[in-house]
Amino acid sequence: MATTQLSLQILRPLPAAGQTCGRQSYSFQSRNSAIRTRRNMKWVLRLSLVDQNQPQSQSTGVDVKQLVDFLYDDLPHLFDDQGIDRTAYDELVKFRDPITKHDSISGYLFNIALLKNLFRPQFFLHWVKQTGTYEITTRWTMVMKFMLFPWKPELVFTGTSIMGINPQTGKFNSHSDFWDSIENNNYFSLEGLWNVVKQLRIYKTPDLETPKYQILKRTANYEVRKYSPFIVVETNGDKLSGSSGFNDVTGYIFGKNSTMEKLPMTTPVFTQANDAGLSKVSIQVVLPLEKDLSSLPNPNQETVSIRKVEGGIAAVDKFSGKPDEAIVCQKEKALRSCLVEDGLKPKMGCLLARYNDPGRTWRFIMVWHCSKLF
C-alpha cells in the first residue's frame, strides 16, 4: 500500500517548559508534555536549565568538553564499518533503551552489530551538549529498514541519549536512550515495543524520485521534517482532495512545453492551500531534482507555472485510505491542534501530498509545510 502526508507551516515555537533553544536544537516540547515527562524522567529539568547554568567540571579532572567534541566525531560512525571507539567506554557500561538493555561494552557492541545486520540503520546526530557534571546529552535521528520482510518497512526513531561519565576513569559508564514517540521510556516498555511493531506494517510508495528531507523529530502524532529546496510545476486546483489541473501539470512533464522535452515522473502530487478556509488551492508536481529553473523549458499554457520551493521545516501526519475533503479537513485540524499543544504556532493553510495518481490514491500522507524555526 502507498502512503500520503499532510503538512503545516510554522511561524515560530511558543515558549515551552523543557525546551532547549540552542542553535541546532530541534526539541519542540510543550508545557503539558514536559510535565508528563518530568514525572518519569527527572533529567528533563536539567535539560531545561542547561543554557542558563552550564555545568563546569574543570575541577573534577574530567575534560567534558573534550568528550563532547569526541562524540561529535565518533557517534556518526555508529553503524558504519569504522564503528565507535570502544576504548571510550567502561567495560561494564550500562546501556538502556525502552526495549533493550546490556551491562557491558561487549553487549552494547553486539546490539549495534545486530541492528546493522537486520535493519541497515542510518544515524544522524543533531547536537551534543553537557547537561551535568558527569553527564552529556545527545539528540539524534535513526532511520532503519527491516531487511527480513519483503516490503522492507522503514522504522524511524528520534530522541535523546543521556550518557554518564565515570569520574574515576573519564570514560562513559552509562547510555540511556529516550524516544520522542512514547511516554514510558523505562525498560521494558510495552509502549515502546508496540511503537516498533506498528512501523512494520505493509505499505508501498512508488519507486520514483521525491523531495529530500531529514526527520528531526518523530512524536506519537506527527513527524517534524527539514526539507531541501525543490522545484514544482503548478496550476490552479479546485480543492485539496481534488484532481482538477492534474492533466495540465503532468502534461508539462510529458512534453507539452516550449522544447517538447519529456521529464521523468516523480512523487508526490501536492495540493496546497494557503488560506484559513483551505479554499484557494493549487496542484503541483515535483520536477527532477537535478534540474534548476534555468534549465527547464517554459510551459505552453499560461495557467501553468514553474516555481522553486525553498524548503524548510514541516510537521507531517501520515494516514491511509482514499481521502475526501471532509477527511482532509479533519486531519488538518487534528494536526494543527497537536502542534499548538506542543508549543508550536502553525501558519495558515496546509499541503496534501499523494503518492499515486490523485484519482486512484488509496493511501496517502498529510503534511503541514513549515517555515524555518531556527
UniProtKB/TrEMBL annotation:
SUPFAM superfamilies, A to Z: Probable bacterial effector-binding domain (SSF55136)
Alphabetized Gene3D superfamilies for the sequence: Regulatory factor, effector binding domain (3.20.80.10)
Family: Belongs to the HEBP family.
The name this protein goes by in its record: SOUL HEME-BINDING FAMILY PROTEIN
